[in-house]
Design goal:
Distance between the termini: 41 Å
Strand order of the largest sheet: 1-2-10-7-8-9-13
Number of strands: 13
Radius of gyration: 21 Å
Strand content: 5-15%
Largest sheet: 7 strands, mixed
Mean pLDDT: 92
Low-confidence stretches: none
Number of helices: 18
Structural class: alpha/beta
Amino acid sequence: MVMGRNNEIMNNSLQIDFSKFELEGAAFDYESMMSEVGYEMDEMRKIQLELGVGNTPIVELKNLTKLARKYAPEGKGARIFIKDEACNASGSFKDRRASISCYHAKKLGYEGVVTATSGNYGAAVACHAAKLGLKCIVVQECFDSEQVGQPEIVEKARKCEALGAEVVQLSVGPELFYEFLKIIEETGYFNASLYTPFGIAGVETLGYEIVQQFNDQIGKQPDVVVVTNAGGGNLTGTARGIRKAGNTSSQIVAASVDLKGLHMASDKDFNRKSFTTGHTGFGVPFSTNPDRSDVPRSAARPFRYMERYVTVKQGEVFYITESLAWLEGLEKGPAGNTSLAAAFALAQEMDQEQIILVQETEYTGAGKSVQPQLSFARKNGIDIHFGNPDDEVPGESIILPENPGMIKARDMDLKRVYKSRVKNILSQTEEDLSDVELEYIAEELNSTIEEVQLLIKEIKEGV
């Protein structure tokens, strides 16, 4: 009964009527939905600064840049920078999402907030709920059916509890969304989902800051901005902020860990992966079907902004995580280092005077460092050794590169995943697509109507 009323429950919990953004057929008015946020950029930045969020530093990784140049062709090896989002109140870029969501919940008079998360976002919501005097419930998939959980996930649950949240811990499976809906309806709390317009708009300040800081401190903009991609909100919000600040030149590159073959909702596979976010198990399905999330229309639409999508291997991310600590004295979690591993490889394609930026880092802790995760993987039968990362098989092996020169950024075929996105849209209608729907798809793919029509033709012809 609860699942049958999910849109009604979501609309009530956000005080947004998503139906008013629906257009013809499968199309909807994305920008009108985003305008529902109601806060200008300066206002959001002020809110966040008062809550200890934002104005995080950009840091040049000179030693990692030097190492990349050792393996790059002559004259290649761009300068590598990170934006250190670990300096936010709870230690990740997700503070930006949570701060605006919790502020808005307080403004609307809600008593508390609810979110479903693997952990980082839950910690951020708990942090800002505490600051604003709101109650907080975090619904989290923590364990497999044997009640065994990854060190990273268990550590995140502890952090949520330490910040005053009530954590509802579940085993992996379809009941997460059901429990989430039930709690929202029973409590009447605000839905602080990752995928609301408030959550995505909160990340826009990150992109806006990047542009301002590079103008003021470096005197030029990054040539490439690499973003770890999972549910798509990180990339969407950052890219929107970059564009709103007037930077239309930086290439936006998505990066995910290759976990091909592992099913994210599988009890068997749950503890056979060493990454709980930033991997293809989220990055691909949430890009090709963004409205699978816990709101009627997701505000995370990464295909509207990404210009390249690359993958890296688990072993490469663990390797770069330790390299960052040993060479730069910075201990960061694997999710942010997913994009750093990609940036390390991509920098070697670029000229030395160019700049590549990793747009976020995240907090660390007992469950975020390398050894607990690798030890847990060994206990689950994963073979860990040094060798060629190309031979890595998710769920069976983690292969650390024998040398840094073996770290690669492997291009995903964007045309193939675009076709998956279009197929998902076509499945929503039995009629020929209208001009409004074609225009909507073109916006979704940052493309032209003519290119969309060609994709549809190839899909129907089985090409």
